[in-house]
């Protein structure tokens, strides 16, 4: 009986001594970023028959300015439309609570929970 206790004590002590300590644990290094290289196209036997695509031509300064101005006009139109929409009473008046029409005010015992504004009215 003493031998079994002695061996179990030694086994427990060795297990505790060999257990991994949180301070001694080596933190794993993060994986290296993987960059995807461009896939090389395989040349076919009839590759010499295909025409090469022409490179993109550079735009003149006037064309760039015209494109810029058209984009700015679109942005201004969009902002004006949003501002006009925001001035409607369902967005500007607080009594609407996000509804198209102001909600009914029921007596306290008959109030219902509204999914739109997340409150009882």
Describe the protein's architecture and organization:
The chain is mainly alpha-helical and 121 residues long. The protein contains three helices and two strands. It has helices spanning 2-18, 61-86, 89-92; strands spanning 113-114, 119-120. The protein has a two-stranded antiparallel ribbon with strand order 1-2. A hairpin with a 4-residue loop joins strand 1 (113-114) and strand 2 (119-120). The chain is flat, with a radius of gyration of 37 Å. The chain starts with a helix and ends with a strand.
- What gyration radius follows from the Cα positions, in whole Å? 37 Å
Largest sheet geometry: 2 strands, antiparallel
Low-confidence parts lasting 5 or more residues at pLDDT below 50?
none
Q: Treating each run of at least 4 consecutive H or I residues as one helix, how many helices?
A: 3
Strands across the major sheet, in which order?
1-2
Distance between the termini: 78 Å
User: What would the average pLDDT be, to the nearest integer?
Assistant: 78
Task: Tell how many strands the DSSP assignment holds.
Answer: 2
Helix content: 25-40%
The ordered H/E elements are HHHEE
- Tell the overall outline: flat
Assembly context of the chains: single chain
Strand content: under 5%
Helix and strand content put the structural class at mainly alpha
SSE topology sketch:
Elements: H1 2-18, H2 61-86, H3 89-92, E1 113-114, E2 119-120
Antiparallel strand pairs: 1-2
Produce a short descriptive summary.
The protein is mostly helical and 121 residues long. Helix content is 39%, strand content 3%.
């Amino acid at each position: 009986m003493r031998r079994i206790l002695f061996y179990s004590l030694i086994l427990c002590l060795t297990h505790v001594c060999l257990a991994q300590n949180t301070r001694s644990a080596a933190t794993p290094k993060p994986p290296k970023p993987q960059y995807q290289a461009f896939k090389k196209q395989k040349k076919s036997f009839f590759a010499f028959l295909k025409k090469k695509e022409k490179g993109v031509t550079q735009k003149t300064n006037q064309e760039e300015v015209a494109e810029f101005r058209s984009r700015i006009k679109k942005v201004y139109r969009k902002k004006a439309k949003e501002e006009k929409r925001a001035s409607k009473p369902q967005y500007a008046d607080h009594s609407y609570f996000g509804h198209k029409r102001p909600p009914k005010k029921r007596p306290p015992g008959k109030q219902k929970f509204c999914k739109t504004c997340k409150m009882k009215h």
